[in-house]
Amino acid sequence: MPPKKSQATKAVKKKQAKGEEEQKQQHEEVEEQEQEEHTELAEQQDQSSVEGEGEEPSTGDKRKEAPTDEEPEPKASKISSAFPKQQKIISFLLSDAALAFCQNAENASSSGKGYFSAGLAPFEHLLCAIILSKPLSHNLGQRTIATVLNEPYAWKNANDVLEAGKKSDEAYRKDSEGGTTAGEMGEMAQLVVDEGWDPEGDGSLNGLLEKVQSGEGEGDGDMQETLRKEVTKIKGVGGTAGDIFLRRVQGCKGWEGLGWFVDGKTKEALEGVGLPADGEKIKKLIEDLDSKNVRQDFVAVLERALGVSLDGKMDELKKEAEKN
């Protein structure tokens, strides 16, 4: 019997030794895991304090904030750094002082209607579009527009043009130095009457607006494209005149459905004076200035930026805007 007892004792001791070894191994594994977690946490904290441009720490993160004067500048500030400068340019373009960089002296001294006048009727914008689409210099285009919009001509609607007769034709042809014929203006006026574009005869072109809104005119249903194609029905008028008219008339009441249109040449002009070439972004900049008439100011910014570009005074304007 003694040998059996000895064997039992050895078995128990062996089992106890094995258990102690397993416990020791488990303890070592726990310590190793805790060390790894501690090291990982330390690395995360160290990385956070160095970058300073990542996501904001969560509510439960009690990492001590670095001193304000030592924190790197956030990315958001770098992205929006041009914003105040662009607002300055927008604000300056909407001021009377900006006209000195895009309006010729003759028109600047006149109190009558002109290229940059606010509140022109859609028909007057159509006149401007046809004139500006012709191969005229920027200054001559302004002078021609001032001629037809003011006395003794003062063309406010199609009937005014049709009734003007030969005398006005000759004066207009002389003023435009043959670059645009009065015959085209007469054909435009006749089309306005024939197509019913201005049924009230007040220059509002409500008939054209209704046709464009209803999709009855030529085009694929898009108001911009439909309006452009309707305007090019006028003999001698191409896509350039359509774009100019679209750019200008979108500032008139009732024509808001045209969106915030910027044509190709004006996009280049906006970029040239330091502004975004996107209509929605220009609108936002104007809204942030608490504009009382965002659409009218939107068109003014486009026309003045283009005028500055055509006169080659972009750098001068930007320098002047910085002073204000």
From TrEMBL:
It comes from the Eukaryota. Residues 1-82 are annotated as: Disordered. Residues 17-28 have a biased composition (Basic and acidic residues). Residues 1-10 have a biased composition (Low complexity). This is Uncharacterized protein.
